[in-house]
Write a structure and sequence with these properties.
Oligomer: single chain
Distance between the termini: 61 Å
Low-confidence stretches: 1-17
């Protein structure tokens, strides 16, 4: 509600904004007693860029640590930051083409023991008007049963299952509507499992960063096992806002061709 007198409205945007015009909309509550009120709105924009934006290590030997230096630059307002990194996930990614009125396309996923999360994502359709639906089935018992679906009005869909059962799963992509007749798109599935290893950064605490300030830090990745046939390991290095933990900037880590 808008109240008489100064007010401060805080909004944290956790995803990095794209270039263009952004708009903040506020509205009076129907329960507000005054016909009009005076208030103030203040905001700050935060953005940290990382270089390189992608660290690819190829080939990769299991058990061998690899280190990469990153340079971070605080582009916008002063902010307090921390550096973080994630464990590896095993990823399969490919491009495909699907036709309007055609049969759904299936992708078999072999979930390994100890997997803590299974995520399947489609997107990047060449036809901007394409509407593709994504369905995920658990076939580990010998009978495929629905485990999740994403059926929005675009081709950008994602389904995540926590602690999936070990064994065979199937992702199905349905061409609900493709105005141009056919469209290419990108399919990927990701298996999070601590057995794969991960990326670490040195222990660090909240550090104030001035607008325009740059600093460097190292990240070290170690693969503990192979990713699987036609798969690679993926992790993320990020700079976060120290209090809210919002991501200010990130880089993708890819360890490919992992062998003993």
């Amino acid at each position: 509600p808008l109240t008489t007198g100064p007010a401060t409205i805080t909004r944290i945007i956790t995803a990095g904004p794209t270039d263009g015009v952004w708009e903040i909309v506020d509205a009076a509550s129907r329960a507000a007693v005054p016909a009009s009120s005076t208030y103030e709105v203040s905001f700050e924009a935060f953005n940290v860029t990382l270089a390189p934006t992608t660290w690819t290590n190829d080939p990769t030997t299991v058990g061998t640590p690899y280190t990469q230096s990153f340079t971070a630059t605080n582009v916008f307002a002063a902010v307090s930051t921390v550096e973080t990194a994630t464990a590896f996930a095993s990823v399969s990614s490919r491009s495909a083409t699907i036709a309007s009125g055609g049969a759904p396309q299936q992708y078999v996923i072999n979930v390994t023991s100890g997997t803590t999360s299974l995520n399947v994502t489609i997107g990047g359709a060449s036809d901007p008007g394409a509407d593709l639906d994504l369905h995920l089935f658990n076939c580990t018992s010998g009978t495929c049963v629905p485990a999740g679906s994403s059926t929005g009005g675009t081709a950008e869909e994602s389904v995540t299952v926590a602690d999936p059962a070990t064994g065979r799963w199937i992702a199905l992509v349905d061409p609900f509507a493709v105005p141009s007749g056919s469209t290419s798109y990108t399919y990927s599935d990701s298996l999070s499992n601590p057995a794969y290893g991960g990326v670490t950064v040195p222990a660090n605490s909240a550090t104030p960063r001035a607008a325009g300030e740059s600093w460097s830090f190292n990240a070290t990745g170690t693969a503990n096992t192979a990713a699987g046939a036609d798969r690679f390991l993926r992790a993320t290095v990020a700079v976060r806002e120290a209090t809210s933990n919002a991501t200010l900037g990130s880089a993708t880590v890819i360890f490919a061709n992992v062998t003993p």
